[in-house]
Amino acid sequence: MLAKNLSKRTFSVPVYRNRIGGEWVASKGTSSLDIICPATQNIVGKTPQSTEAEFNAVVADAKNTFDEWKEVSVSNRMRFMLKYQELLKQNRDDISRMITKEHGKSLLDADGDVFRGYEVVEHACSMPSLI
C-alpha cells in the first residue's frame, strides 16, 4: 500500500529565474531543461529556455554591472570579496549540499570545493599588495 501511495506523489522542483536589474524575474519561455543529479538521476530543478529578449536583458544588465564595478577601487573590491568569503563560510553546508545534489559529488568532495573557493577569494584579496 505504501509503494502504491508513493507512486502517486508528486514532488515539486525549483524552476530557476533570471537575475535582471537586481531582481529575480520568471522567464516567459515556454520550455525548460531538467537539471538532473548525476548520482541519482532525479530531477532536482528546471531551468527555463529564456526568450531572446530575456537573454539580451541579462547580457545588458551584466554589461551595466561591469561598467559600475570597474569604477570601484581595488581596496573596496577587496572588501566585497572578504564579505563574499564570509558568506561562503556561513553557508558552507548548504553550498556543499547543493553541489552534491547538482553534480553528484560526495559531500566530502563538495565541501572541499567550497574550501578551495575560500582559497580563490584569499588570492583575489591579495591583489592590492601585488599591484
Model description:
The chain has two domains: 1-71, no CATH class; 73-131. The protein has helices at residues 2-8, 52-69, 74-90, 92-103, 107-125, 127-130; strands at 18-20, 23-25, 32-36, 43-48. Helix content is 59%, strand content 13%. The chain is an alpha+beta fold and 131 residues long.
Q: Which strand order spans the largest sheet, edge to edge or round the barrel?
A: 1-2
Number of strands: 4
Radius of gyration: 19 Å
Question: Which band does the percent of strand residues land in?
Answer: 5-15%
Structural class: alpha+beta
In helices, the fraction of residues equals: 55-70%
Termini distance? 68 Å
Low-confidence stretches: none
Tally of individual helices: 6
H-E order: HEEEEHHHHH
Structural shape: flat
Mean pLDDT score: 89
Largest sheet: 2 strands, antiparallel
Question: How many domains?
Answer: 2
Key structural traits:
131 residues, alpha+beta, two-stranded antiparallel sheet, 6 helices, flat
Condensed summary:
With 131 residues, this protein is an alpha+beta fold. It has helices at residues 2-8, 52-69, 74-90, 92-103, 107-125, 127-130; strands spanning 18-20, 23-25, 32-36, 43-48.
Show the helix and strand layout:
Blueprint lengths: L1 H7 L9 E3 L2 E3 L6 E5 L6 E6 L3 H18 L4 H17 L1 H12 L3 H19 L1 H4 L1
Antiparallel strand pairs: 1-2, 3-4
